From TrEMBL:
Pfam families: AhpC-TSA, DUF4369. GO terms for molecular function: antioxidant activity; oxidoreductase activity. Keywords: Cytochrome c-type biogenesis, Disulfide bond, Redox-active center. SUPFAM superfamilies: Thioredoxin-like (SSF52833). This is AhpC/TSA family protein. It is found in: Cell envelope. GO terms for cellular component: cell envelope. Residues 25-115 form the DUF4369 domain. The keyword Disulfide bond applies. PROSITE patterns: PROKAR_LIPOPROTEIN (PS51257). Residues 199-316 form the Alkyl hydroperoxide reductase subunit C/ Thiol specific antioxidant domain.
């Protein structure tokens, strides 16, 4: 009897162990010219929270528990991004050179080989060429999981997205993948995204800031107001934060700012806010691109910003550093 019980326990243990193994996903990476440092990894559309990967002697290993296919984004110190298509129980490899990150090869599954081929094909193209190639790929391979990433990367998370094109390509993907929850959710948001454009009035919103304070559209009542989207791992967005701090000091009472961070770690966000002595309210809920306030304001690009006048009218959107500087000066004068 005891022997039977012992065998049953051993069998149960082995079954549980096998089950856990099926959920483990692993990346094994090797990069020339990148001896030591950290990478970031997060899930596209909030599927996996932001995590860090330590690199030592050019190599790293990353493990995650996943229960379904997930698109991960690996972010390098120069803010280059490489998508990795993760599956439960699968190990993939990343090999490359820190000087030529666009040529990084991701192997281990056919879908990652296909994505590598796309990246290599478009590595020397200008942005319009990459976008055209992405559109062609979606037209020809609408059933591929790669399409969700291409739609998000090259059509949604860009300055001034073309919503008609997003709708058209999204419909193609949904026809081939009727159970694609990410694209279905994106298409559902398009109506709201179309509304928040230059010339329209800023939608009314009310959220909690890092200190627990209420942050609302009613707070943006100065002559010039800016909503700025940033992340601790995006250098350009941090530069714009610093620009806004300087311009606010130079124009007391004339410029109000509210910042939204897409950091997956509220702690990392708070660290940057404290380090840079940010004076205005910052919103960070750790939900990254799935944060409801981003969906309400139609902010899909990093860095992003919305410039509002004293009457609550949107006068500009998604300006770069220099254009934002000029627009604020123009409106204040």
């Amino acid at each position: 009897m005891k022997q039977a019980c012992l065998l049953a326990l051993v069998a149960a243990f082995l079954l549980c162990s096998c089950g856990d193994g099926q959920k483990k996903f692993k990346i094994e990476g090797s990069f020339k010219g990148f001896n030591q440092g950290e990478l970031y990894v997060y899930g596209l559309n909030g599927a996996q929270k932001l995590d860090t990967i330590g690199v030592s002697r050019g190599e790293f290993t990353y493990k995650a528990d996943i229960t379904e296919p997930t698109t991960l984004i690996v972010v390098f110190p120069n803010f280059s991004e490489i998508p990795v298509f993760a599956e439960p129980g699968v190990t993939i490899t990343m090999e490359g050179d820190a000087v030529h990150l666009k040529e990084t090869e991701v192997k281990g599954t056919n879908i990652n080989k296909e994505m590598t081929a796309f990246r290599l094909k478009t590595s020397a193209m200008m942005p319009p060429g990459v976008k055209g190639t992405a559109s062609q790929y979606i037209n020809e391979h609408a059933e591929s999981p790669i399409c969700t990433y291409l739609l998000t990367k090259y059509f949604v998370m860009v300055p001034n997205p073309d919503f008609d094109t997003i709708q058209k390509l999204g419909n193609m993907i949904m026809k081939a993948q009727p159970d694609n929850k990410e694209v279905a959710a994106l298409l559902k948001k398009l109506g709201a995204l179309r509304v928040v454009k230059q010339g329209a009035h800023l939608p009314t919103f009310s959220v909690k800031g890092l200190k627990g304070e209420t942050v609302s559209s009613a707070d943006l009542n100065a002559k010039v107001n800016v909503i700025s989207l940033w992340a601790s791992w995006n250098y350009e967005s941090i530069s714009i934060q610093n620009l806004l701090a300087r311009m606010q000091r130079e124009n007391p009472g004339k410029l109000k700012v509210v910042s939204i961070s897409v950091d997956g770690s509220v702690k990392d966000c708070q660290h940057i806010v404290d380090r840079d002595s940010v004076k205005w309210s910052t919103v960070c809920d750790g939900r990254m691109w799935e944060s409801p306030i981003l969906q309400q304001l139609g902010m899909t690009y990093l860095p992003d910003n919305i410039v509002i006048d004293g009457q609550g009218k949107i006068v500009a959107r998604t300006l770069n550093y220099q254009d934002l500087t000029n627009k604020i000066k123009e409106l204040i004068e």
